[in-house]
Amino acid sequence: MQVKKICCIGAGYVGGPTMSVIARQCPDIQITLVDMNAQRIAAWNDENLDNLPIYEPGLAEIVAEARGRNLFFSTAIREAIDEADMIFISVNTPTKNYGKGKGMAADLKFIELCARQIAEVARTDKIVVEKSTLPVRTAAALKSILHHTDSGVNFHILSNPEFLAEGTAVQDLLNPDRVLIGGEEPEAVEALANIYARWVSRDRILTTNLWSSELSKLTANAFLAQRVSSINAISELCEKTGANVEEVAKAIGMDSRIGPKFLKASVGFGGSCFQKDILNLVYIARSYNLHEVADYWEQVIIMNDHQKQRFADRIVQTLFNTVSGKRIAILGWAFKKDTNDTRESAAIYVADHLLNEQANIAAYDPKVPAEKVFMDLDQLNSRPAEENKQQVSVYGDPYEACKDAHAIAILTEWDEFKTYDWARIKAGMNKPAFIFDGRKLLQRRELEALGFQYYAIGE
Ligand code: UDX
Ligand code: ADP
Questions:
Q1: Residues in the chain with pLDDT < 70?
Q2: Strand pairing report for 360-364 and 392-395
Q3: Are 412 and 333 in contact (CB under 8 A)?
Q4: How far is Cα 133 from Cα 136, in angstroms, rounded to an integer?
Q5: Contact 188, 158 (CB under 8 A)
Q6: 190 phi, psi to nearest 5 deg
Q7: Which of 42, 371, 383, 427 would be 387's cystine partner, CB 3.0–4.6 Å?
Q8: DSSP alpha helices (H): ranges in 319-417?
Q9: Residue 1: its pLDDT value, please?
Q10: For ligand 1, atom 21, which residue shows the shortest CA distance?
Q11: Tell me: the pLDDT tens digits for 346-403?
Q12: SS3 145
């Protein structure tokens, strides 16, 4: 099976960078990224690379090189499906917000829609690749939809979960720890492996059965999130005992069995994957009546929610038990640095808790526009949108956001925050001037020397 044309359905945080990198590494393969969101496609096609819908270091350069050569962005979904030998599905699979499994199970309606469209349009054999993170055994549903057409077309289904992390997506794609391909037909698996083998060494291309591949993705994210919740649990104990969480993380991380990565205590993990994937795991375990397994993993989420809540509570307590009418500057709205993605960002929940306490919020993020901040808050349905408009202002300049603030909360670890003129910021603030560092980004000694009251997670 030789792949000459690829179509990818879903031009988001996964589809966009993944296809751009494949296009760069395989100039002879024509790749069309399609999306039903015309505005998003227009942004991918924008001459001005600053307007690409996704911010990822290094991505704009790759798009500039490949776009129009062998990388195309289009809303013509049917045509792209028809022409392709291989179709990646990388549409969103949010947590269901209705019906059975509400708040837990993945909503697979977008995936199903893609499958139905492929089944309807395809006239030649296709390899269909699941790229989106999915619950285990989704491939069974895909198969069932695709194989019940009367067209005589053969579909080969593969699972090829994405392990890229936002903010480092391009590097992760160019130098992956491993590429995982799950499938039943060796020729189809080989066809996809051959694409990655152009730049990834064969010993890093792992092939498994479909269900192992699907479950490995959920498990990898659950383990990573569990590490963050574990160190966050310890951070609370540090604050009570006088231990320092950074010192503890360093001490345990030097044990080669534990390792140093993913031990950074924070205001809580965010992002589109961790919470969703664990909820999926919990839901699946419960559906097999594995309640101990479900409870075990659910605790990772409970700990994460607690961390966000207790960070907000700490601000309120420290500000003499009231933030009503006080201005709290929030630096960082994205769920981590080097991305404009805000899905499940801790900032949204911390801001929401503070708004419940009638605080005024002044937010600044280098890559997140004001509309996104309001959309995130409005989606929580905690209060009427007009109240969010009244209580929250979003600034394009960090010094403006911090002006007249009673406290600053650092919620994303953007590098630029370290370089600010903190003396200037303090001069413009209400006194005592408080900083709550949810990322342990700044240096306590320097800030205290400037006269700030400095609080950091895990100290
Ligand atoms: C994650 C997985 O890392 C990736 O392999 C998968 O494909 C998608 O999900 P992503 O969500 O993009 O990637 O970012 P990641 O770097 O994993 O961070 C997730 C969250 O955990 C962020 O909010 C981050 O700030 C937080 N985090 C991470 C910590 O709080 N402490 C850490 O030590 C590491
Ligand atoms: P991810 O982080 O998984 O990439 P995103 O939300 O960034 O998630 O991207 C998913 C994209 O998939 C969105 O741009 C959405 O418009 C697109 N999409 C969802 N369903 C379909 C569909 N049936 N056909 C085409 N595009 C779709």
A1: none
A2: parallel
A3: yes
A4: 9
A5: yes
A6: -65, -40
A7: 383
A8: 346-356, 370-379, 385-391, 398-402
A9: 81
A10: 269
A11: 999 999 999 999 999 999 999 999 999 999 999 999 999 999 999 999 999 999 999 9
A12: helix
How long, in residues, is the chain?
A: 459
Give yes or no for residue 271 CB within 6 A of ligand 1. Answer: yes
Alpha helix (H) ranges present in 34-154? Answer: 38-44, 59-66, 77-83, 109-121, 138-147
CA distance 52 to 57: 12
At 192 the pLDDT is: 98
Residue type, 20: S
The per-residue pLDDT for 148 is: 82
How much is the pLDDT for 336?
98
| Residue tagged 């911010």 (tokens) | 55
Cα–Cα distances (Å) from 3 to 123, 127, 209, 443, in that order, read 16, 9, 22, 52
- Residue 133's pLDDT is 78
Sign of CA dihedral 363, 221, 304, 233: negative
What's the 254 CA to ligand 2 centre distance in angstroms?
Answer: 40
Give, for 199, the enclosing helix (H) or strand (E). Answer: none
Q: Which residues lie below 8 Å from residue 281, measured CB to CB, with a gap of 6+?
A: 218, 219, 222, 294, 297
Is the C-beta atom of 165 inside 6 A of ligand 1? yes
Q: Which of 240, 158, 244 is nearest to 206 (CA)?
A: 158
Q: How far is the centre of ligand 2, averaged over its atoms, from the C-alpha of 15 (Å)? A: 8
Specify the pLDDT at position 135.
78
Beta strands in 379-451 (DSSP E): 392-395, 407-410, 434-437
**Which amino acid is it at 203?**
D
What lines the ligand 2 site, CB under 6 Å?
Answer: 9-15, 35-37, 40, 77, 90-92, 110, 113-114, 132, 272
What is the rounded end-to-end Cα distance, in angstroms, of the chain? 57
